[in-house]
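Hi R.,

Here's the chain you asked about this morning:
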Amino acid sequence: MIYPRLPVADLDRSTGFYLSLGFSLNEKLSTANLSAMNISAAIVLILVPEPFRQEIRTSLAFPTRSDVDDLLSACVPGGGAVTSRARLRPDGVYLGTAADPDGHLWDFLCRAGGP
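And here is the predicted structure, written out as tokens:
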């Protein structure tokens, strides 16, 4: 299991954003002071309201280009922003980047171009 931890300014706003992307709330791990978001069977994102610190950029791979496009489309209504529209790179990776409401950058990608 992987549990990346992200500091957020507004826990409710950020929880709503990740729910709007189709991720689900992990009821067992969530408390009044943090939201645990199920991204996959192996990844649970931990959102905590605390001051920002230096962080790494996170990339998530999906099976199809359509999956990438759907996530990017859900970002703006959910309170985030698309910072780089998805495109097929010369190396065959279909990639787009979005920022969540706190400015954390996420790369959504499909390897080998996908369907």
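One quick note: The two ends are 28 Å apart (CA to CA).

Cheers,
M.
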